[in-house]
Amino acid sequence: MITINVEQSVLKDEQKLPKDLIMHVQEAVNGTVPMKKDGVIEVAFVSEAHIQRLNRTHRGKDTITDVLSFEYPDQKDIIGDVAICYNQAKRQAQEGILKEVVDLLVHGILHVLGYDHEKSGQDKLMFSLQDKIVDLLL
Fold it and tell me: Is 117 annotated as a binding residue?
């Protein structure tokens, strides 16, 4: 079972995810995804500059991105981090910002749990799980 902690201090009040929605994301992931590990996933909404710096440092890409995930397979308590750039999410949202942010949140969590759409054969499984979870929520 996972627990999700979300840091939203960089967001304006109207941009923040409601606590009950975060709880529903946690419940939906726990009820849908076969758990390979248990622990806490720390999620932070970050600025464009911060996510660009993370992307450059960890992926060698000097660009702003929407979401980054960091898996910590050797840790027991905090099993990963997810960083989401709200401004980038807003720019690319086609079905509304709430759906985009929830989609990115679930996407990042799945990466922390070991799913990787860039590995051959895993893309359909990961995106199928992501769509199933998001559909349960919205």
Answer: yes
